[in-house]
Amino acid sequence: MQKFPMTAPGLQRLEEELKTLKSIERPAVIRAIAEARTHGDLSENAEYHAARERQSFIEGRIAELEEIVSSAEVIDPSSLSGDQVKFGAHVKLVDEETDKEATYQIVGVHEADIKAARLSISSPLAKALIGKKVGDTISVPAPGGDRSYEILSVQYR
Hints:
five-stranded mixed beta sheet, about 40% helix, elongated, Chitinase A, domain 3, alpha/beta, protein biosynthesis, Tscrpt_elong_fac_GreA/B_N_sf, Helix Hairpins, 2 domains
């Protein structure tokens, strides 16, 4: 079985989503299906088909989350140290073209959220950062051409 590296908060978010799907969403869609069945002919019942489709999505997501949660390998970034970029690191970068600074945490594939500055370990930027140190410059392929970044700091918290 493949193990997925993950931070503890990332695992907790997935477990909360799983709990919500099982305890709230699943019973709600079962009620919606039962309600739609009372409306008669199922072959032309749009509510019934929509509820069944929603049920299919929920059951699929539950199965996916159970697989991920059972295969999670929790890594505590606060137990790591050093100036080299590793999983869990908070990395502060500066875009060498625009001088714009950004800080990202390198996290597991299933907990990545670019809006929350959590960068997937499998993303091109994270792959370029792994193993590098403060002061290093990296080049990352982007749709508009390669982008260069300088690593300003690496923290484990």
